[in-house]
Design brief:
Elements: E1 4-15, H1 54-66, E2 70-71, E3 74-75, E4 78-81, E5 91-94, E6 101-110, E7 113-126, E8 130-134, E9 139-143, E10 150-156, H2 163-180, E11 192-202, E12 212-217, H3 220-239, E13 247-252, E14 257-263, E15 273-274, E16 281-282, H4 285-294, H5 299-309, H6 314-320, H7 324-337, H8 340-358, H9 369-380, H10 386-399, H11 403-409, H12 418-431, H13 433-440, H14 446-457, H15 464-491
Amino acid sequence: MKQYEMVIGLEVHVELATKTKIFCGCSTEFGKEPNTHTCPVCTGMPGSLPVLNKKVVEFALRAGLASNCRINQTCKFDRKNYFYPDNPQNYQISQLYIPICQDGWVEIKTDTGKKKVRIHEMHMEEDAGKLIHDEWADCSLVDYNRSGVPLIEIVSEPDMRNSQEVIAYLEKLRCIMQYAGVSDCKLQEGSMRVDVNLSVREAGSESLGIRTEMKNLNSFKAIARAIEGESERQIELLEEGKAVIQETRRWDDNKEASFAMRSKEDARDYRYFPDPDLPPVQISDEWLETIRKSLPEFREEKMKRYQEEFKLPAYDAEILTESRSLASLFEETAVSFGNAKKTSNWFMVEVLRLMKERGMEPEEISFTPKHLADLLSMLERKEINSQNAKKVFERIFDQDIDPVIYIEEKGLKIVEDLGRLNEVIQKVLDENPGPLKELLDGKEKVMGFFVGKVMKEMQGKANPESVRKSLAAGIEKVGIEKAGIEKRKAKE
């Protein structure tokens, strides 16, 4: 059998996080009642005219600069004509001839090393509405809330050769967009959508095969499965001597197969022409420089700083910077607490544990960094034990309680009462003669049993170190007494 390789390029649609739509003042808020965020402009009413949202241009520039793109300081909008029920105007305002950004790149890292994936262009456009298929009523309904929501479409060169590179590229793009503050890139909400253009060719060949475009991909796992499934389909066709047809296909993740939707359109099929209602966009040097200076510290810079300034291990720095919101939460907590390494340890264990248990994304975390910093300070001062601190943190994570007030109200603060502690130790030793004998006979592991018993009796209000010291002293005293008794018996 011949050896084949994949050639993959992506079209990534990213919804911009502006509060209003690209050409009107309607809200872009997700998840509202159908057709409540609409007006004559975004529903394509006759006589309505678009007015460009300046924030959309700013966000597109931020995305382009963050992706090493060349900026076209004069760009313009074009009409892309197509006739779908979710497209109320029967055309989409997009950019074909002079997009806002071109010739960029991002660097990805996979098992085979680092690689640059080139970005052919990045253009602004408006989103279409959303078709909702009601199988019970056997009909399709249209929600125009999404119609007119601003998008940037990021078109890569066909530089990727396998699904691992594709996922690495998408993760890098998502990270850049989130750090740049232009989009939340939630695939489950459709604010990041991916179309995969894929062809196969004999390994070593320079010519490109016939490509197909796959749509309906709403998770990275689905994208990886679609790439593997479509490449196998194309290879089987070539091995059977059949031709691959250039077409748009729909990926069904449940059936793990793609299905033909329509023949693949070329630009001429859309009858593009300059939009007569929108003048060219002029981007001044001053505005561009202002946006360039406003860009934040991106992940690679932040990872390096965390290792140098905070002395964090490379692994911790990598995990903590995967999300801009998680990095911000960590950094604010670390500065407030004053110990970055101990803050990192808490995030790497407790914060990530609760995120996994709650099924939450970093952007959904809502506790105040100072509340966690206050809890860590109390733990550092031994005013609360670690077991109770973890329970209190769950309340902070879920309800953002003030730990100082909560610990005081619930009586969880450690009180050094050595008299009471010694009474409890004596009681525990008296009630457990068997384990005590094992401990005196040299079975040191039994010490943990006694520490647990004493902590339970003290209701977690004892300092574990004090418990261990007092317990050791009490056991030593018992041992001395036992040795004295045995010595006297021997003399008798």
